[in-house]
Specification:
mainly alpha; 8 helices
Length: 177
C-alpha cells in the first residue's frame, strides 16, 4: 500500500486479519501475516515505492529495479505462510522438538527457494535446477510433516547432484538491473 508501518498495520489489521481468523488462523499469526505483507508492499511490485526511489537515486530503470527487488525478496514473501502453517514458530502451543523441526525445515525451505530464485548455489544453475530448488523450498512450507520431510530429502538429493555434477559454467544467477 505504500504507507508507513503504523497506518499500514491499522488498515491491514482491520481488513485482512479478521478474514484470516475466520479461516482458522491463530490471531497472532493472522496479524503478523497482515502486517508483514503490508510492509513488504513498499519493497515489491506493484507498489514498490522504495524500489522506485532507489532507481531514481541510482539512475536505473524503475521497473527493472522493482523486478530485481522482487527476486531478492521472493523468499521473504514465504515467511508469513510459515507462521500461518506452523504457529509454534511464534511460540504458540510451544513444544521444543516440534519447534526445532519446524525451524529447521523453515530455514532450509527459505534457503532452497532463495537458491532457486537467484540461481546460484555452488555454481550457476540451469533453469530446471532452479525450478527443482524452488519447488523443494515451497514444499517445505506445507503443514504436513511427511511432505516437509520428503521435501528435505528431495532438497538434499538435488543439492548433492548439484555439488557433484561436473558442470562448471552455466546461465543464470545474476539479477539484471
Amino acid at each position: 500500500m505504500g504507507l508507513p508501518a503504523t497506518p499500514c498495520y491499522i488498515i491491514t489489521a482491520t481488513i485482512a486479519a479478521p478474514a484470516l481468523q475466520q479461516m482458522g488462523v491463530h490471531p497472532l499469526a493472522a496479524h503478523f501475516f497482515a502486517f508483514y505483507y503490508g510492509t513488504m508492499s513498499a519493497v515489491v511490485p506493484p507498489v514498490a515505492l522504495t524500489s522506485y526511489t532507489a532507481a531514481g537515486l541510482a539512475g536505473a530503470k524503475p521497473f527493472r529495479v522493482a523486478m530485481a527487488a522482487l527476486g531478492l525478496a521472493f523468499s521473504g514473501l514465504l515467511l508469513p505462510y510459515l507462521f500461518v502453517y506452523n504457529p509454534d514458530l511464534l511460540f504458540i502451543d510451544f513444544i521444543l522438538p516440534k519447534y526445532l523441526l519446524d525451524l529447521a525445515t523453515a530455514a532450509l525451505g527459505i534457503f532452497s527457494l532463495s537458491c532457486g530464485v537467484i540461481g546460484i548455489m555452488k555454481r550457476d544453475m540451469h533453469i530446471w535446477e532452479r525450478l527443482l530448488f524452488a519447488f523443494a523450498g515451497i514444499a517445505m512450507v506445507n503443514p504436513l510433516r511427511m511432505i516437509r520431510l520428503s521435501s528435505v530429502l528431495f532438497f538434499l538429493l538435488i543439492t548433492a547432484w548439484h555439488c557433484y555434477s561436473g558442470r562448471t559454467k552455466g546461465k543464470g544467477g545474476t539479477l539484471p538491473v
